[in-house]
Amino acid sequence: MLSAVLTVTALLLSAAPGSAAESGWWVPTGRPAPDSQVNVTGEPFKGTDSQGRVRGLVDAHDHLMSNEAFGGRLLCGKPFSEAGIADALKDCPEHYPDGSLAIFDYIMNGGDGRHDPDGWPTFRDWPAHDSLTHQQNYYAWIERAWRGGQRVLVNDLVTNGVICSVYFFKDRSCDEMTSIRLQARKTYEMQDYIDRMYGGPGKGWFRIVTDTGQARDVIRQGKLAVVLGVETSEPFGCKQILDVPQCDSDDIDRGLDELYELGVRSMFLCHKFDNALCGVRFDSGSTGIAINSGQFLSTGTSWTTENCPGPQHDNPIGSSTDAQCNVRGLTTLGEHALRGMMKRKMMVEIDHMSVKAAGRTLDVLESASYPGVISSHGWMDLGWTERVYRLGGFVAQYMSGAEGFIAEAARTKALRDRYGVGYGFGTDMNGLGGWPAPRGADAPNPVRYPFRSADGSAVLDRATTGERTWDLNTDGAAHYGLVPDWVEQIRLLGGQEVVDDLLLGAESYLRTWSGSERHAPGVNLAGNAAASASSTEWNPFTSYAPGRAVDGDPATRWASGWSDDQWLRIDLGSARVVRSVTLDWEHAYGKAYRIEVSTDDRTWQTVWSTTTGDGGLDTARFTATSARYLRVHGVQRGTGWGYSLKEVGVYGG
């Protein structure tokens, strides 16, 4: 009887999901009933600003469909359901009657995991800012964020096979790629679901886009551009077991082709566990200890650390406070995957990469002047920020408490101004993290309802679904519908300047993406060119001849004698305009060396030099110069061996 009374009450409460008096292209004519209210009035902003830029907020990291991940029963509730809100926003069956079997809640959030399992229509205990296993991305809550000024949302398809395998409750396979495919399909189904409310295909506000032209058109129409990404621990089956890769380059190529066909345009190469592609940036504290255990279950090896060679470092594990780095970086297979993404014009996510992996990734991107690099939710060492901006990449910060978010935005403000870029946030909702807690009703500068959206087009009141109304001041960021409220809190505490940078976020994100789309790889003028050297290391089993540095095979190399003042000379065949040189060093690298050019092989001009070389992949850029001959001249070795180069590239563009 009580259940029936509550259902009738909910029907009455939700009879008019939006404003009863409002009508327009942005108000659906076929919304199901009952449903959530949106609590927003005003036509969404259309078009571009006075400078021709699209305008709006960007969430660079969200997980719309993670309820389909981890075996299908770890995160409870759905972002939409053909059967309606009562089906979409209900708890997992094992959480009834009191949450006693909400084991993941207990493990990750402390307490005893007990909670009122009922979602619709009462929502007594969830969604909440600290509830990790309940749906936060119901479509109407995302609609509220869109109406509140958001114009780009990146939906990262996510899962983890180990979490799935060890979790007690599941109703499907733990294969990661199977889950990724399902989540992609469900995102398209959600688009269709919303379209039907507006009269048919293409008419809804939720638009999946696969290129920047589509994205800009969608945003100019005042709608939400949705980009598909992938964040999973073992993509393409590329796990490692006892340091042995379980995939090969063909698996990677097929996997990238499949993801691209699904519409995926950004991707993490590793996440949480070291895999056959790259080492990860550790989680810290007790979470790190738990994930390291998962790594051992998956790979047979635990994280291994070393002293960091530079100022960047990975997170300390457990209670340690020492700055340590993962010994694992970007593997040969990982570099193959990276270059495969570049070939397909995809954006590379470097959050979750170890310092060593991220550094090498940035080296590769810089060597090709490839701008498609993203830090989407604050999981890279912040010392990489300027390198990302210099390439043309995009940076977003995790959706943390307003004070912390504002402080970090201020720390990087000068860099954003220098490079003329906007800012973004990564909500990571449904990502098993945590979200901004309530500041309290009596905290200074509370959000006062109703308030005007960041872009000025809409007025938002408190978010209401069923019998529950949320207030950011007292509830924190409990679900996606409270993202505009959180942005308003940032404005109140940090000023309009922070919000202005956030409103430039959609444009900056699209510039990074379009730079990737337009990128044309340069022609390597040194490919298979004639090469000679001051000396060559002798080995009875393999050749280290000079030509090995220009043969296009990173598995071969030129190696000099074990002394300084060594050189490698490349004959380009005729006079060419050269602007940059890339040098992929073997372990025996040059600490001090210079790049010299000549037109006649007699008179040499230094166009670039360094005394602080540290090995790896170096890119030397200099004023365009006409030359037939180019020489890498070693002055001081970085090791006790000679100079050894796997590949040298010479480029005119």
Write a structural description:
This protein is an alpha/beta fold. The chain folds into 2 domains: 40-61 and 140-169 and 179-267 and 288-299 and 319-514, TIM Barrel (Alpha-Beta Barrel), CATH 3.20.20; 530-651, Galactose-binding domain-like (Jelly Rolls), CATH 2.60.120.260. Helix content is 28%, strand content 21%. It contains 18 helices and 25 strands. The strands form 6 sheets. Strands 2, 3, 4, 5, 8, 11, 12, 13 and 14 form a 9-stranded parallel β-sheet that branches. The longest helix is centred in the first third of the chain and has 22 residues, at 176-197. It is globular, with a radius of gyration of 27 Å. 53% of the residues are buried.
Quick synopsis:
It contains 18 helices and 25 strands.
Which helices and strands appear, and what pairs or packs with what?
Elements: H1 2-13, E1 40-41, E2 57-62, H2 85-88, H3 103-109, H4 139-147, E3 150-159, H5 161-166, H6 176-197, E4 206-208, H7 212-220, E5 224-232, E6 240-241, E7 244-245, H8 249-262, E8 264-268, H9 285-299, E9 305-307, E10 324-326, H10 332-343, E11 347-349, H11 355-368, E12 373-375, H12 385-391, E13 394-398, H13 402-411, H14 413-419, E14 424-426, E15 451-452, E16 459-460, E17 463-465, E18 468-470, H15 472-475, H16 483-494, H17 496-503, H18 505-518, E19 530-533, E20 558-559, E21 566-585, E22 590-598, E23 605-610, E24 617-637, E25 644-651
Parallel strand pairs: 2-3, 3-5, 4-5, 5-8, 8-11, 11-12, 12-13, 13-14
Antiparallel strand pairs: 1-16, 6-7, 9-10, 15-16, 17-18, 19-21, 20-25, 21-24, 21-25, 22-23, 22-24
Helix pairs in contact: 8-10, 13-16, 16-17
